Amino acid sequence: MVDNFHELALLGRLATGLRKTPDILLRLSPGVDPHTHSHVATGVLDSKFGFPLTTGQAEEALTKAMSTPGLKLTGLHFHLGSSLFEVEPYLQAIDLVLQFAAQMKQRHRFDLRELNVGGGFAVQYLLDSPAPSVSRYADAIVSALVEQTGELKLEQPRLVIEPGRSVVARAGTALYTIGASKDIPGLRRYVFVDGGMGDNIRPALYDSKYEAVVANKMGQPETDVVTIAGKFCESGDILVKDVRLPKPEAGDVLAMPTSGAYSIPMSSNYNASLRPAIAMVKEGKARLIRRRETYDDLTAHDSV
Amino acid sequence: MVDNFHELALLGRLATGLRKTPDILLRLSPGVDPHTHSHVATGVLDSKFGFPLTTGQAEEALTKAMSTPGLKLTGLHFHLGSSLFEVEPYLQAIDLVLQFAAQMKQRHRFDLRELNVGGGFAVQYLLDSPAPSVSRYADAIVSALVEQTGELKLEQPRLVIEPGRSVVARAGTALYTIGASKDIPGLRRYVFVDGGMGDNIRPALYDSKYEAVVANKMGQPETDVVTIAGKFCESGDILVKDVRLPKPEAGDVLAMPTSGAYSIPMSSNYNASLRPAIAMVKEGKARLIRRRETYDDLTAHDSV
């Protein structure tokens, strides 16, 4: 996947030097608005990613790639962004990219053998925000691909998708222990947990929303509306705002579902906090697959 | 520093159990707007931090603390937030907290022996945004304290400050190597570096602004306006927008001053990136004080 001219030239030199001929795809920026958070909208025109389709750069990159000895251009790639709750942006992008491929076939005998439409399939974080099913994305993408290649008289390329979040997000649940509470009468009740933005920066970074439950009080009446605050030294360290729970008390276990994507990979040691352990659960049995950090770990690479 | 009733009770039990009598301060939330990013405004009424001064809770906490065997309440604390470019919020908060102390003296014979006004002194990140000098903060805070204690007929308490960022931020400069560039004609030129939101989340998280220079081209004419993009898989991974630099080229070293606070402590292994090395420089000599992470480090705690 080649993103820009610098990489293209660099890869060409490396391939020649190593006497290899790697298959490459070009990453295109199709200029499609994915209707998601601007931080994770990656396929718009003013993006750091990819060759913009609407300038002459995509064609220039394609001819350069085709004429670079040592590189074999087998296809095209785009990635629109993360958490796309609609399929329309995929359809728009497929349409644009296949039109480009047809033009390039005519002008440069380019043969689109692979089309990689990236990822971005949304998952359901909130009870009232269901995500499209995988089959909805698949049907829409495949139908568009079959229809458009037919119209444009292109061979059907191999279709590649890159789901990430939609595979792993629901596989993870974050567990916290509840500590203090703070009631500001008439305003808000904060309930503190022993984690926060250090292990899940998404609420602070993207205003991401999560559900939460009290794991040891499942099924009990949800009587209290509280805000789940982390232990970190910032007001922005709020995990969930105004969630209805059974009366949360110190020692209770708060569970946040759909924490399997981006929590641990983006976790930090902010405030000298220790990154959490990870346990794998299968058929009622739990196994530790990553141990919790220790204070010794925090200074393990220091030489002072 | 006791933040809430839960901590107060817990600390009381611990102290009694251990037969210790720790000195404690109460953290108050004075309800003062510090005019900073909402994520780091910590002393407002709707805050997870401290006993709100404007409710009866601060008085309740004070009487509880004074009557808890095993705890010795020696003073009060507030922390307004981070990066306060004005001194007025400190003056407002000192005024409010000393009035509270005077009331509590009258009603409960509370003796304010220590006043901790927290931190939040701003530093200059941008050439056109100078921060008040340390002496400006000190003069204002000390004058207010002397004047107000005089008016309220209070003994002058010991004054404690907690500067963090203002001590270390300017001691650190982040160094990146420049790689690819991407020009979107008429719109923007992106210049990529080998770091980004993994080692400095502040621009993405708080829209924090930094200056940048090309370290190996200091003094050369600043001919190019570019946007410094990180290597991470998000459009939000932009370190500096539209900065004027001498023509940046692959292999150049980009330096971002004032990176000594919050960059490394909030750094992550996002995208399986390795956290950077830290070198201490003194009188022209450099010494490695933290080594760069390795890929082995990333899986060191895994047991699968």
Explained architecture:
The structure is a homodimer of 304-residue chains. Chain A is α/β, with parallel strands linked by helices and 304 residues long. Chain A has two domains: 5-168, TIM Barrel (Alpha-Beta Barrel); 172-290, Beta Barrel (Lyase, Ornithine Decarboxylase, Chain A, domain 1). Chain A is built from seven helices and 13 strands. In chain A, the strands form three sheets. In chain A, strands 8-11-6-7-9-10 form a six-stranded mixed β-sheet, with no helix packed on it. Chain A has a five-stranded parallel β-sheet with strand order 2-1-3-4-5, with helices on one face. In chain A, strands 12-13 form a two-stranded antiparallel sheet. In chain A, helix 3 runs parallel beside helix 4. At the A-B interface, helix 1, strand 6, strand 7 and strand 13 of A face helix 1, strand 6, strand 7 and strand 13 of B.
Query: What is the class of the largest domain in chain A in the CATH system?
Result: Alpha Beta
Strand order of the largest sheet of chain A: 8-11-6-7-9-10
Radius of gyration of chain A: 24 Å
What is the string of SSEs of chain A from the N terminus onward? HEEHEHEHEHEEHEEEEEEH
- What form of chain A results from the Cα inertia axes? elongated
Structural class of chain A: alpha/beta
Name of the CATH homologous superfamily of the largest domain in chain A: Alanine racemase
Mean pLDDT over the residues of chain A: 96
CATH architecture annotation name of the largest domain in chain A: Alpha-Beta Barrel
Helix content of chain A: 25-40%
β-strand amount of chain A:
15-25%
CATH T-level fold name of the largest domain in chain A? TIM Barrel
Main sheet characteristics of chain A = 6 strands, mixed
Instruction: For the record, give the distance between the C-alpha atoms at the N and C termini of chain A, rounded to a whole number.
Output: 41 Å
Task: List the chains of the largest interface with their residue counts.
Answer: A-B, 63 and 63 residues
Poorly predicted regions of chain A:
none
> What's the number of helices of chain A?
7
Count of folded domains of chain A: 2
Total beta strands of chain A: 13
Oligomeric grouping of the chains: homodimer
